[in-house]
Write a sequence for this structure.
């Protein structure tokens, strides 16, 4: 199975609870349509312009996505990657998990064997559903990303910060990767690390390391990381634990998310909640055009379309 590179090949539309959008209220509701940019990047931009931004969920960078945000006061915006349009009001700010679900329209290239698997598995999934794993969008693609949380739990803030930068280095170009590598060899010398990276790495990313240089305080450095980013890391850590638990569960039930007790000085709220072990897609429709599979369906909030796709093509 292979995705093509066009955003229109992965269309996601957020579904809000019925009656959420009203004709008047304390908050303005905007429809956010974006492509080739992730939700948090848009939220950061809008937050700088208009103040606090509420949103129900994160939509991936890759795809054409529609979701909703709330602001006390904003205005319509349009850029190369996104647009927001006011669609009404709400009495309350949108919070994480407040959406009802998402609808999907997906186009992927498949082999003849995958086509057969899809035809067979789709009937089973319509009847029995599929395991509600978190996908890499939440877990950060690898344990290394969320291993930072392990060190936060131990109050080993120096190693936690190292893990933070190891993850950041993976997205750097070849030249900057070498600078990061040299920095990691000299992690006990924050001044040398900062000097190596300054000018080659975004100042926002370097803020925590700069804090170590100025204050010699690794906790203070951790607090320089945007809170939303830290909360996502914690959620990813919870997701990994959930996935491991789900490996050993076959029945359809609701289980609690792992409770993560972070040191109070971090000021991070850990998400508490429950998650279904099995989900069923609604209105699952599949057609084939030569080597393309065209799929449309709805999933409840928190369920991943990419997990459904993996289950459909499984031999």
């Amino acid at each position: 199975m292979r995705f093509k590179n066009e955003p229109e090949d992965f269309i996601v539309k957020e579904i809000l609870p019925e009656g959420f959008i009203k004709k008047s209220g304390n908050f303005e509701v905007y429809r956010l349509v974006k492509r080739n940019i992730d939700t948090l990047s848009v939220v950061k931009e809008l937050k700088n312009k208009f103040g606090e931004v509420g949103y129900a969920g994160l939509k991936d960078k890759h795809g054409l996505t529609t979701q909703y945000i709330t602001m006390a006061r904003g205005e319509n915006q349009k850029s190369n990657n996104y647009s927001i349009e006011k669609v009404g009001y709400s009495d309350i700010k949108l919070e994480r998990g407040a959406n009802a679900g998402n609808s999907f329209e997906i186009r992927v290239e498949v082999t003849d064997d995958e086509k057969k698997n899809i035809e067979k598995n789709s009937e089973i999934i319509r009847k029995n559903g599929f395991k509600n794993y978190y996908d890499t969008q939440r877990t950060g693609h690898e344990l290394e990303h969320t291993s930072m949380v392990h060190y936060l739990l131990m109050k080993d803030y120096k190693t936690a910060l190292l893990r933070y930068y190891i993850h950041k280095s993976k997205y750097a170009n070849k030249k900057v990767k070498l600078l990061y590598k040299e920095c990691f060899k000299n992690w006990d010398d924050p001044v040398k690390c900062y000097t190596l990276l300054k000018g080659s790495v975004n100042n926002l990313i370097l803020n925590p390391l700069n804090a170590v240089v100025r204050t010699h305080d690794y906790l203070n450095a951790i607090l320089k990381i945007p809170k939303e980013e830290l909360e996502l890391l914690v959620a990813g850590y919870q997701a990994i634990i959930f996935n491991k638990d789900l490996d050993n569960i076959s029945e359809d039930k609701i289980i609690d998310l792992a409770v993560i007790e972070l040191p109070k000085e971090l000021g991070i709220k850990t998400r508490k909640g429950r998650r279904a072990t099995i989900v069923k897609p609604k209105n699952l429709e599949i057609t084939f055009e030569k080597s393309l599979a065209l799929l449309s369906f709805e999933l409840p909030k928190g369920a991943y379309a990419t997990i459904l796709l993996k289950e459909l093509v499984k031999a």
About this structure: The chain has a mean pLDDT of 93. The chain has three domains: 17-99, 103-132+278-313, 135-276.
